[in-house]
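Re: the request from the purification team.
They wanted to know what the chain is likely to look like in 3D before they choose a buffer screen. I agreed to run a prediction and write the result into the notebook, where they can find it.
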Amino acid sequence: MQASNSTSSPAANLNQSLQKSASRNLRERLIALLLLACGLVSILTTFGIVAVLFEVTFEFFQEVSFAQFFLDTRWTPLFADQHFGIWPLINGTVLIAAIAMLIAVPLGLASAIYLSEYASSKLASILRPALELLAGIPTVVFGYFALLFVTPLLRSFLPLAIFNALSAGLVMGIMIIPTIGSISLDSLRAVPRSLREAAYGLGATKMEVTTKIVLPAALSGIIASIILGVSRAVGETMIVVIAAGQQPRLTLNPLESVAAMTAYIAQVAAGDTPRGTTAYKTLFAVGAVLFLMTLALNIISYWIARRYREVYD
């Protein structure tokens, strides 16, 4: 009886081991399938959004010609005298984004350089979370800050309209500072310490090391952060809705009221425009243009990151 137990025990152990191995393989396959499903959800959602967007956009262009859309300089699809020229909306979007980048790029990059090259590690550990705190403020708060504080302040010495591109752009630039600052800071810190020490060994000053060694080495990440900031500015909605107004106007004057593409989309989405009408379909046509603009910016950012990426051993 004892001999029988001793001969069957290894076989039972082998069988138990095989069962555990099969169970472990099954769990790993289930986890892999679950992760694949999660990834597919985001991909399919993107394809679904793009399909709906361009399906209605195609219907829009069956009613409105490309010449009306791209050559007309007036945008009044909600009025009786309808015009469908997209350029006033693109003008407002680009004007506000340009003002925002004039604020965000120097301040964000300067803050990143200071935290990376000049601040002590203890001070940097305090200042960086404080800088990134700006990113957690709701954009609607930034919008009302622009309308109720920045605009009255600027109107004390500038002939500013109540709703204007300047206030919206300035506050949007403040909002984007953490985006550019954080990504640039990570890029600067990724530069190997040996490069800095080699430059110091040759007698370079801190400013020379920063401007001639560290910044060129981190250029791809810095440019990518700037393009990401531009994408954020182009796609921002609440600030432009609240502070810039909704007057589609082909102008480069930042003191006037303008309308951005996101502001028009919010206006139509929240309004009483009947579904299925040409005016309603402009919502998708403008969204398609906005999508193509941000897609182009992302492609440029990806290309620059790959083209100028420095690889260190």
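For the purification team: The chain is about 75% helix and 0% strand.
Please add any questions underneath this entry.
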